[in-house]
């Protein structure tokens, strides 16, 4: 079982010189071109960059959804490079939480069953108190026996957040989590995410195009052509947008 207490000094995720190349020879695309980054436990990091800069590839390599061509990825104490597919699947299931733009909830299951799904897949026992805790942490106030389709977009994304947090993962990976929401709902969900990350001391890595979303993060990484070209500590949406608009000039 992985409910390890998290120490303030260790890193939850670490990438050393990660490269990911698609194709070969003159057709080769260097989606990641030597990325090194460390996410401290309890930190919230946003990744921004132009289309094709490698944001999704970074998220996929850091979370074990994909393997780098070279370099090292450490998730907690696990070195993902050396793992067989079955071990990697187990780690993704038990030690990583995912949230995508499309909420990816199962409508055949109730809200409670959706949230508990990662625990059931990991054969972990749980009680309603655990589910109640995570539901409160995402400030979700709906009957838990509802089907997801009966909920608003913002509520569905809170269910997805709860599902990602329920195992208390080493790291949570979010790909455009507010991309399908209107501006007001997006801000509410980002506030919920920020508070949940703080309360639970979770580590989160979020890919986004939206400077407002990135303004909720402790650190904003800027990618261009597969490299981290800059990073900023927590920043207003205006300053982040400004940096984005000058990305090619660095
Ligand atoms: N499976 C693949 N096969 C070949 N090339 C790929 C593959 N996946 C990504 N790429 C290429 O790698 C580069 C980085 O892609 P990636 O999807 O990581 O960028 P991104 O910053 O997430 O883009 P977007 O903001 O448009 O989602 C792009 O040039 C893309 O075309």
Automatic annotation (TrEMBL):
Keyword Methyltransferase: no
Assigned keywords, A-Z: ATP-binding, Nucleotide-binding, Transport
Domain (ABC transporter): residue spans on this chain: 13-250
Gene3D superfamilies in the cross-refs: P-loop containing nucleotide triphosphate hydrolases
Gene Ontology cellular-component annotations: membrane protein complex; plasma membrane
Listed InterPro entries: AAA+_ATPase, ABC_transporter-like_ATP-bd, ABC_transporter-like_CS, ABC_transpr_LolD-like, MacB-like_ATP-bd, P-loop_NTPase
CDD domains: ABC_MJ0796_LolCDE_FtsE (cd03255)
GO MF term list: ATP binding; ATP hydrolysis activity; transmembrane transporter activity
Pfam families in alphabetical order: ABC_tran
SUPFAM superfamilies: P-loop containing nucleoside triphosphate hydrolases
Protein known as: ABC transporter ATP-binding protein
Species this chain originates from: Solicola gregarius
Species lineage: Bacteria, Bacillati, Actinomycetota, Actinomycetes, Propionibacteriales
């Amino acid at each position: 079982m992985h409910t390890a207490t998290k120490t303030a000094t260790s890193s939850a995720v670490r990438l050393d010189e990660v490269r990911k190349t698609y194709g070969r020879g003159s057709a080769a695309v260097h989606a990641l071109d030597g990325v090194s980054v460390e996410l401290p436990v309890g930190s919230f990091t946003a990744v921004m960059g132009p289309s094709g800069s490698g944001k999704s590839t970074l998220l996929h390599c850091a979370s074990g959804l994909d393997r780098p061509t070279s370099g090292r990825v450490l998730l907690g104490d696990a070195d993902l490079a050396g793992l067989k597919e079955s071990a990697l699947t187990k780690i993704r299931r038990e030690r990583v939480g995912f949230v995508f733009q499309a909420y990816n909830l199962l409508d055949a299951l109730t809200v409670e069953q959706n949230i508990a799904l990662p625990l059931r897949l990991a054969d972990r026992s749980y009680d309603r108190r655990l589910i109640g805790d995570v539901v409160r942490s995402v400030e979700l106030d709906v009957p838990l026996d509802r089907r997801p389709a009966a909920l608003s977009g913002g509520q569905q994304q809170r269910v997805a957040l709860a599902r990602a947090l329920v195992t208390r993962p080493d790291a949570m990976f979010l790909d455009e989590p507010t991309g399908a929401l209107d501006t007001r709902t997006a801000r509410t969900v980002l506030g919920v995410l920020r508070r949940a990350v703080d309360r639970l001391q979770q580590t989160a890595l979020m890919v986004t195009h939206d400077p407002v979303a990135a303004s909720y993060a402790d650190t904003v990484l800027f990618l261009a052509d597969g490299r981290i070209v800059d990073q900023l500590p927590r920043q207003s949406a205006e300053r982040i947008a400004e940096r984005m608009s000058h990305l090619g000039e660095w």
